[in-house]
Amino acid sequence: MAEGTVTFFAEKLSNLILQEASVFGEVEGQIKLLRNELEWMRLFLRDADSKRIYDERFKLWVNQIRNATHDAEDVIDEFILNMDHRKRRLNTLKFLPTCVGMVDKLPFIHELDSRVKDINAMIRAIMANRSKYGLEALTASSSSTADQAVSHKEKRAPVVEESDVVEIIDGAKKVKQMLMMKVETSKRSVVSIVGMGGLGKTTLAKNVYNQRDVQGPFDCKAWVYVSQEFREREILLAIALQVMSLSDAEKREMGETELGQKLCGYLKEKKYLVVMDDVWSSEVWSRLQPYFPEEAKDGSKVLITTRNKEIALHATYSEAFIYELRLMNPDESWRLFLKKAFRGTATTTPELEELREKIVTKCKGLPLAIVVLGGLLSTKEKTKQSWEKVLASIEWHLDQGPESCMGILALSYNDLPYYLKSCFLYCGIFPEDSEIDAWQLIKLWLAEGFIQRRGKERLEDIAEDYMHQLIHRSLIQVADRRVDGRVKSCRMHDLLRDLAVSEAKDAKFFEVHENMDSTFPISIRRLVIHQNLINHVISQCFHNSSSGLRSLVSFSTGTIRKKSWGYLQEHIKLLTVLKLREERFGRHMLPRDIGQLIHLKFLCINGSFDKLKLPSSMDRLVNLQSLDLHNVCNIPHSIWKLKKLRHLECPVSKVSSQSQINKCVNGYLGVEQLTNLQTLALEGGSWLERDGLGKLTQLRSLALRDWTPSYLKTEFFESIAKLTALEPSFCHFRRSIQRKHW
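RE: above sequence
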């Protein structure tokens, strides 16, 4: 992971040297020296990064390099922030001579020079420690180099889908029979699938749930993921939204009991099927059971998946309605392994057949271990020597203490190239058992700087390829696909998520607030919040001097207080990613000074408010790449100044018109200035009146709503015709004035 940290910052530094040479001035020499030191460190890190787990010397050395890199990044970003503030201050004092501006700049330059020199000296000392403490045996070789990975240009074979993962004979047939069976003593009964993690409980349940002849007899169906982070209201709301209609007010305001009673009243008249996946506690069933009426239509069913048979016995009518998954036998294991290793085919060579027993033994019949190992070997040469090398690595991992499956998962993670390691770990920020929106994940990867350029390829396409590589390695699973076959959403097995969260914490990649010890870490790069503690967490960041925080991602619901926004703006100024969910704003307006977060690249707010207003300071967010607002918003016309915007997704928002006076003073602002735009979702407005839309030659997705005939002039249609990169399946026009989510 440290290799990725150093590589991403080295690339960022190279771009800054090209773009901001005039800003760095006489310090440019020290900046270039820092970049060169980073390049050397990166080469030595490749081998050390994987060895750090089991050797304390490597771990200390790698941690010191990572910390030095973070310090360097903070120094550079703080300097850019100070220079921005200086520039804006001088703009208000235009009458001052140029020499005054230069004098004003000197203290920042001298401070930067001093701090970069200190960091360069620190890095030289860290590198010298390699020989001083016996680490000089490191080589630049690594199993994760790009030439050993499957080329991204290779035409991909079909992925072995989830339906192929579970090879247990009669499993789906038996569960299906249980769901169709009538129980004389109750009109509603419970069926349970039981098995250890990695056996394929979810996959088996989904296989049965998606069958047409299973769904047909039921009036309504719902699937919810429960997980360890059980929240009663969220589960009830998720079920209700799948089987009935709720008003926005009901979604927002109904409590657990009221919501449960409404759901129960609706289900009484139906024959229903509800799947509760990944139940960890008997309490879950005890609290939800009253809302699944027994007096519903005959044959209603609740299907539960759990690791604990005691939970199944607590919820289920009799053991006759419990299906226990078993481990795969050697023949089943080998067939599934071949499908993954040879990407859809089950053919092998005689010399690889000799390794059959060793491979099957290592996986111990666990489907998750089989598909992950198969995915790993699918990226290697199909030779006995290459495969034996990987199997020897498994021995080494298992000798260190972890159980069989986790050892194989850790090996597959360590085999990833550095850029995929970052992407894999990042998937761990999402709540357990959640369905991850693929498009949002790609935009987050992009904002975090994980996507490495490959010639003239579009960054989003490279990111999509990264996702496919993780899918082929079975480190993430496809949850849903779009009409055109592309991945719509993905999911992470809970064992793999556990691995990602553990590795991320160890590598100081991100922290999940709920998993922290009582002591709040002094330095955090990325912070994830799953529970409703947003204000408390921001306050902790401030009091623990977490000024280096780059990403704040909240999946909780709540209200960010004005004081908390003040903390963010004054003390956590280097944010790159800010993602908030269902936050309410007292005056329905983002803070006036949000423009101070000039390093922000990704801003996403999904709120429960009726209308949100963005402040005029938004035009200072010059690095913003993605703006996601899925509630009704008023956007200032200065949004057109943000030339780095790639994704403007505000489907029920309007951009204000630019006044004639403003045009005379500041010049015309229009959509045509966003030449990097790939995605555009907005309400129609005066910005459509010119032919600016036609100048967005990179636009691939366009969604307009509430467009009216007043905009339908010849220029408008000519503009649409010029959008040659536009993908037909991602072009939508709606006249409806009802404000509904797309």
